[in-house]
Design brief:
Blueprint (H helix, E strand, L loop, with lengths): L1 H44 L6 H26 L7 H17 L7 H25 L4 H20 L11 H8 L1 E2 L2 E2 H19 L1 H11 L1 H6 L4 H27 L10 H11 L11 H20 L5 H37 L1
Antiparallel strand pairs: 1-2
């Protein structure tokens, strides 16, 4: 009877998780519907919104935010958060720009990418070690490193500015050109997103992240190396923030010490709006990327419609509150469902 009860409980748990995944899949579909409606309405008011340049700008502006959202997704899935990503982007953009400006003819794009990813990975490693092995709360750690990295960035910059004329043409080409009319930045983001999504879905170590987010204690008892996985999540998030910093430099050319300041909250908003549960264990990188595209498109649409930029922040906040509320309601209902099924099987 005990074995039968355990099997029934496992089946019930899988069914509940199936319901959760179904609901969050529906949320991703609702994002597509909302995005389509927004584009159609804005285009009806201003047909230039879907011009070739308009579409290109939306994809370029979405790329960096979506890349950061992919890295943040792994952290949030493990029931943690990384508030330092915006500061890492700013630090990497300036340091890489200063490095390249010293010898624009002799240092190429590959060197810039390696340098940027390395700086970002080191920042992620510090966050991961403090959160996973020293067990300091993620909010405290990443808020602290946010200010430390900002201070370091300002110290290195000393009020200087990196200008596009001092950068290698190949780097600027990466940020503003493309292949067959498709910019390089969205291509890079899509490749990273698909590879990450495939890994999370297809490999046991990838599914460990979801197990940790669902129940860290249960994951530990099941033999999941919880600390190493959380460290890996922060390392990955930091590396992608470093990559995003180089792409930021390539996209805009001119950078100062506080580039991407405040983007950490925008990244978290994109992830949560995209269906990654703030309590961990549920969500996909595809949904996070859709959330980034929705927020970016809202900003572009408001500019086209000549609406005050305040409303972009208000809408972002409203969407974030709505997503968290939905997550909470869903968690409560799933908990009740599990209790009912367990009680029924126990009886």
């Amino acid at each position: 009877m005990t074995a039968v009860g355990a099997v029934d409980g496992a089946v019930a748990g899988r069914s509940a998780r199936g319901i959760v995944e179904l609901v969050f899949r529906a949320r991703e579909l609702s994002l597509v519907v909302a995005l389509t409606a927004l584009v159609l309405v804005t285009t009806a008011v201003n047909p230039n919104f879907l011009s070739g340049q308009g579409v290109k700008d939306i994809f370029l502006n979405t790329s960096i935010l979506a890349l950061l959202a992919v890295g943040q997704s792994l952290v949030v899935i493990t029931r943690n958060i990384d508030l330092s990503v915006g500061s890492v982007v700013g630090l990497v953009a300036f340091c890489t720009g200063k490095f390249l400006a010293a010898d624009p003819g002799g240092r190429g794009v590959v060197v810039a990418l390696v340098l940027g990813i390395t700086i970002g990975a080191v920042c992620g490693l510090v966050n991961g070690l403090l959160v996973s092995f020293l067990r300091v709360p993620a909010l405290v750690v990443t808020l602290g490193t946010l200010y430390v990295i900002q201070g370091l960035d300002h110290y290195i910059a000393h009020g200087q500015q990196i200008n596009a004329v001092n950068l290698p043409p190949a780097l600027l080409h990466l940020g503003n050109e493309g292949v067959l009319g498709v910019p390089y930045l969205p291509i890079i983001t899509v490749v990273v997103m698909l590879a990450t999504g495939y890994y999370l879905r297809s490999y046991p170590s990838g599914r460990d992240f979801y197990a940790i987010g669902s129940s860290p204690e249960a994951a530990r008892l099941a033999g999941v190396p919880v600390r190493r996985r959380i460290l890996a999540a922060y390392l990955f998030s930091g590396a992608l923030a470093g990559l995003a910093g180089v792409l930021w430099l390539a996209r805009f050319g001119t950078v100062v010490a506080d580039s991407a300041r405040g983007w950490e909250l925008l990244v978290v908003s994109a992830v949560v709006v995209g269906g990654v549960a703030i309590v961990g264990g549920v969500g996909t990188v595809y949904g996070a990327a859709l959330g980034a595209m929705l927020l970016t498109t809202i900003g572009s649409a408001l500019v086209v419609l000549k609406v005050n930029s305040f409303w972009q922040q208000a809408l972002t906040g409203a969407l974030l509150l709505l997503a968290i509320t939905v997550d909470r309601v869903l968690a409560v209902r799933v908990t009740r469902l599990l209790r009912r099924r367990n009680a029924r099987h126990g009886a």
